[in-house]
Amino acid sequence: MKFKMLFILFIINAFSSFSQEVRVEDYSIKGQFDKVYRTSTTFRPPGTGKKYKVIDIVKFQKIKENVLDSLKNSKKIISEKENLLNTERENIQKLNTSFNKTKLDLTVALQKENSISLFGAQLNKITYNIILWFIITALTLCLIFFVFKFSKSNVLTKKAQENLNYVEEEFDSHKKKSIEREQKLRRQLQDEINKHRNA
């Protein structure tokens, strides 16, 4: 039984040590070059003091194929990115053109909103309001002036009418008195003529 326990512990320990030794493989180009460097044999020619690495031809072909494939994919990605970049530049150009047109339209609309056409000339609303209120004020002052003159003339006309009526009444009264005096003088004259004829 002791032997079985030791055997089980040994197997568990072996599996755990194998599982700890498992490395994560790096499949990048750099990782592949590092692996080829680690797994290749070293050669030192006698008397030179230099060190060379001898690479297996299959590993060399495999890494060459991977490098060329990576370059091809990189060129494809670069081409796609350049196409996308060109498309985005065109879109930005279109948006800038549209923005400038909208900005110009907004400026024209604001000018139209802030101006009024008067006798074919475009006037700012403030200038138009100043001219309008000047005309209204001038016409109001003229109206007040003419109303004042009319009322003054009306008062003078009424006074002149009253004076005329008074003078006419005086004239009629004087005329009646003159007629009465003339008639009285004619009677007296006639009486005197009659007196002198009878005498």
Structure summary:
With 199 residues, the protein is mainly α.
SSE topology:
Elements: H1 2-21, H2 29-39, E1 41-43, E2 52-54, H3 57-113, E3 115-118, E4 121-124, H4 125-198
Antiparallel strand pairs: 1-2, 3-4
Helix pairs in contact: 2-3
Written overview of the protein:
By secondary structure, the protein is mainly α. It has two domains: 21-113; 121-198. It contains four helices and four strands. The chain has helices spanning 2-21, 29-39, 57-113, 125-198; strands at residues 41-43, 52-54, 115-118, 121-124. The strands form two sheets. The chain has a two-stranded antiparallel sheet. Helix 2 runs antiparallel to helix 3 (57-113).
Order of the strands making up the biggest sheet = 1-2
Biggest sheet descriptor: 2 strands, antiparallel
Number of strands: 4
Coarse structural class: mainly alpha
State Rg: 65 Å
Question: Could you state the order of secondary-structure elements as H and E?
Answer: HHEEHEEH
Q: What percentage of amino acids are in beta strands? A: 5-15%
**Terminus-to-terminus distance:** 211 Å
Share of helical residues? over 70%
- Number of helix segments? 4
Morphology: rod-shaped
Provide mean pLDDT, rounded.
86
Assembly state of the chains shown: single chain
Low-confidence stretches: none
